Amino acid sequence: MKLNSIKKKAGKIDFQIFCTIILIVCIGIVMVYSSSAYYALHVQEKSTEFFLKKELIWTIVGIIVMIFTMSIDYHIYKKMTLLAAIVTIGCLVAVLFSKPMNGATRWIYIGAFSFQPSELAKYVVVMFMAMSIDNRKKKMDGFFNGTILYLFIAAIFAGLILLENNLSIASIIMIVTFIMILVGGANIKQIACLIPLGIASGMALIFTSEYRMERFLGFLDPWADAGDRNFQLIQSFYALGSGGITGVGLGQSTQKALYMPEPYNDFIFAIIGEELGLIGCILVMGLFLFLILRGISVAIRAKDNYGFMLATGIISIIAVQAMINIAVVTGSMPVTGVPLPFISYGGTSMVFNLAAMGVLLNISRQAKEIKI
């Protein structure tokens, strides 16, 4: 009875968000094909459509999942959160015993498929924070039973991901947790006092790891070792620089021709800059900015505090990831492995991001109308 009444009361989804997501995904598919075709043919020794076909399959799965989550009342996730958290922690522990790839253990292999638990963990932390903050709203201004408690819970997930040699996703989880605690009603002075501690912890993790320290030094002086540790970043500069205002043309990138390692992954934005130029970069950034602003609007208009917190966390993940990826590609921060949402190649990331967008769209269906 309750579900039926909810369906009757539910309005239309935020069509602007839906169209923006589809547009970004379409750009991603085109750019994955453009940036991966040469690599697939000459390195993987596969057909030029090798990565395109895999990305299309996962995109179709992701869109189906998005439509499904878009149709489910978001309040149901409250009942599933604890179970999801336990399963996610189990997966994060299990992945530590999987075979490493490129010096990191981040995937669980199931036959021909691979699954990255850290992608699930990001949204499970958001679900847990939204549920807990909503249930304990009156205690949010407490320091130890509010701010510190939530940061400790998030740190459990982040710590397990850090053991996978994945500082980037661990950092995203902690940043998004900070955002959710702040908007959830925590004492701003308490949050401000913890920021220097967070920065110090990040620096400690960098300087206690040789490869992270190399990346940090490479950020300070990219041209000091352009042929080795800073090679990928320098190739990104070449790609962005050669693209100019209008780009060299779709499919005409030089840097993707075995100059830039795996150009379809985290540095795909550089190929966008080379082939579509500054105009293409501004278009992509503009779409993300519009999506983020619409997501904030959905959060503000959510019919209850749980919807507000859930929408805030979901859109924060997309915003933080997009900003970090673009900052890395443009040399504005040290190189770290953060994919560009909906655009970088990756099945797990695509499916979970689209599933989360479905939840956001469901929140928009039940959002309050604001008359101006």
Automatic annotation (TrEMBL):
EC category name: transferase
InterPro entries per record: FtsW (IPR013437), FtsW/RodA (IPR001182)
GO molecular-function terms, A-Z: lipid-linked peptidoglycan transporter activity; peptidoglycan glycosyltransferase activity
Reaction(s) catalysed (UniProt annotation): [GlcNAc-(1->4)-Mur2Ac(oyl-L-Ala-gamma-D-Glu-L-Lys-D-Ala-D-Ala)](n)-di-trans,octa-cis-undecaprenyl diphosphate + beta-D-GlcNAc-(1->4)-Mur2Ac(oyl-L-Ala-gamma-D-Glu-L-Lys-D-Ala-D-Ala)-di-trans,octa-cis-undecaprenyl diphosphate = [GlcNAc-(1->4)-Mur2Ac(oyl-L-Ala-gamma-D-Glu-L-Lys-D-Ala-D-Ala)](n+1)-di-trans,octa-cis-undecaprenyl diphosphate + di-trans,octa-cis-undecaprenyl diphosphate + H(+)
Membrane topology: Multi-pass membrane protein
A Pfam family recorded for this sequence: FTSW_RODA_SPOVE
Highest taxon above the source species: Bacteria
Biological pathway: Cell wall biogenesis; peptidoglycan biosynthesis
EC code(s) of this entry: 2.4.99.28
GO cellular component, one term: cell division site
Chain's role: Peptidoglycan polymerase that is essential for cell division.
Family: Belongs to the SEDS family. FtsW subfamily.
Name of the featured protein: Probable peptidoglycan glycosyltransferase FtsW
